[in-house]
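On clarity, I found the account of how folds are encoded harder to follow than it need be. For illustration, here is how one protein appears when written out as sequence plus C-alpha cells.
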Amino acid sequence: MQVGKAFGVRILVDKFFLLLLLLYGLLGLMPQVMTVFAVCFIHELAHVLVAKGYGFRVKEIELLPFGGVARIEDLDLAAFDPEVELNIALAGPLQNIFMAGIGLVLRHFLVWQEDLAAFFIYCNLGMALLNLLPVLPLDGGRIYRAYLARRLGFRQATERVAGWGRLLGILLLGIGLVGAFFSWLNLTFFFVALFIYRAANRERTAAAYLFLRFLTRKQRELKDKGLLPIEALMATEATTLREVVRKFIPKRYHLVLLLDAGGKMGYLTEGEIVTALLERGLDTRLGEILQHRP
C-alpha cells in the first residue's frame, strides 16, 4: 500500500505493518512503535540518497513488520566497486548515529519528552551497532566485503562474509532455543535468526550470477573508458577458470600468464577468460583455452 513519496521515491507500507500499528495502538505503545519505524525509514532513506548520488535508480522504500527495505535497481553491481559499496553501506549507520546526536541535544534542552527522547536515542544507536556487524546481509557485511574484495576478489570476499552471516543466524537461533528452554521465550530471536541465515544464503548463491554480470559489464566499461589498470596473475595450464576468477579484483583488467611443463610462457586476457567461462564453464582448464585459441 502506497502512503506517499519522498525525493521521488514511493513509500509503501506492508499490510502486516498496519496490523502491528493497530495492535500496539491498543496496547498504548503507539509512540514507541512509530519511533522504531521512523528510525528504520530514516536509515533506509540515507542509503537511498547516497545511491541516487551515484546514479542508481531507486524504485521504492517499503516498511515491513520487522524493519524496512529500499529497492534500488542494479544495487548488487555496486558490490564490484568497493568504494561505492562502502559509501552506500555506511550511509545508514552514520545517519543513525547523527540522529542519536540530535536526540541527545533535544533531550538536553528539554525540547522532547524525556522517556521518548531516550527511546529514540537507544533505537538509533541499537540499529547502527546491529547493522555494523561484519556479516552479510547487514551493512557491516557490505563494508567488510568492500575491504576484502580489494585483496581477495568479489567471489571469495562474498563467500567469507556470507559464511559469517550464516553463523550469526545459527548462533541467534541457538540463543533463542536456550532462552525457550529456560522459560524465556523471545520470538524476535527466531525471526531475526531466520532472516539473517536465509539472506546470507541468498547472497552466497547469487554471487556466481552477479559475478558473470560483473565480468560482462567490465568489458563494456573498458570500451567506454578506454583505459583500466592491469592486474597480472601467474598460473599453470592445469589451473581452472574457477580458480582464476576467484582472484579477480574490482577496477582491474586481468592478464593471466601461463607457464607450461616445458617452461614456455603464454597468456590469456580477461576477455578470453570471460568468453570461455560463458561457453565452456568454470571447470575448464586454461591450457584448453590456449590450445583452442584461433
User: Anything to note?
Assistant: The CA atoms of residues 162 and 202 lie 9 Å apart. Strands lie at 2-6, 9-13, 58-64, 67-72, 230-236, 253-259, 265-269. The chain has a mean pLDDT of 81. DSSP finds ten helices and seven strands in the chain.
